[in-house]
Amino acid sequence: MARRPRPRTGGGRPYSARGSGSARKAQEDRRALLILGFSVLAIAGAGGLAWFSRTPALDPETGCPRGQIVPEVHTVVLVDQTDALSPRQIDYARSLILLEYQRLPVGGRLTVRPIDADPESVARDFSRCRVRRGNEVAGVATNPDLVEAEFRRSVGDALNTYLEDLETQGTAESSPIVETVETAAESRDFGPNVEERRLILLSDMAQNSDRLDQYATPGDYPLEAARPLLPRNFRDVDVRIHYLRRPALAELQGSSHERFWRSWFTAAGAKVQLGWGLQLAEDPEPAG
């Protein structure tokens, strides 16, 4: 007996070859658009990273941005070499100067000058801006080796030379501390138009000049006698005194001497800390 044909369960072909090809093409087009979009975003991101991490044009003599007259941040370090520094004190001075340089933001200026017999001199032993080091940049957008070479050329070599020369500096007959502070305060690039000012003194703070002589009355330091010598435009300057004790000055140095200098700078409007140790260079922890 002949078999009866089975009925068809569906009408026509469930999927046309043409329809399948169109769907695949649309899917591939969407995938291509997504890849293109991600590529554009990646290129834009790399460009933005290069823009924000770029090294500005620097003055080869100072490491400062070209055309900069007044820095936003300026730290002045006064090193008292009116009496010879011991090798240990010279090492301390080196560490302090390097620490103060490193804590600056990029573009901030560090100036180092001596406390010597000519306080009105505008000569500066070292004055450079903080530049980025090779380990502070992203290698994707900037070459760390080139950045480090730029640091050595504009800042590092001059700083090393200054630090080495500390050992050969001579002594002076007078110690005009207040006069040297006054000269620093009157500098155009350390005035009230500088957003953040910081004054560092590495000194025994034994003032000795025609205008004020603490050797004449050791242990007795009336603030009123020194009030006319207060620096102008010194409000909110952050002052850190690294108080260098000398055995020969035991009669002159002491609590009353420290109190005088705190009061003198405070009367000028500054924020002052006095002590010894490199932790003095760090900002205090905020009160909890």
Reported for the largest beta sheet, the result is:
6 strands, mixed
Shape: elongated
The computed structural class is alpha/beta
Number of strands: 6
Q: How many discrete structural domains? A: 1
Mean pLDDT: 78
Unreliable residue stretches = 44-54
- The fraction of residues assigned to DSSP E strands is 5-15%
Tell me the helix content: 25-40%
- Give the oligomer, counting copies of the same chain as homo and different chains as hetero: single chain
**Which second-level CATH architecture applies?**
3-Layer(aba) Sandwich
Rounded to the nearest angstrom, the radius of gyration is: 33 Å
* Main sheet strand line-up: 3-2-1-4-5-6
How many distinct helices?
A: 6
CATH class: Alpha Beta
Measured between the Cα atoms of the first and last residue, the distance is 102 Å
Task: Find the CATH topology.
Answer: Rossmann fold
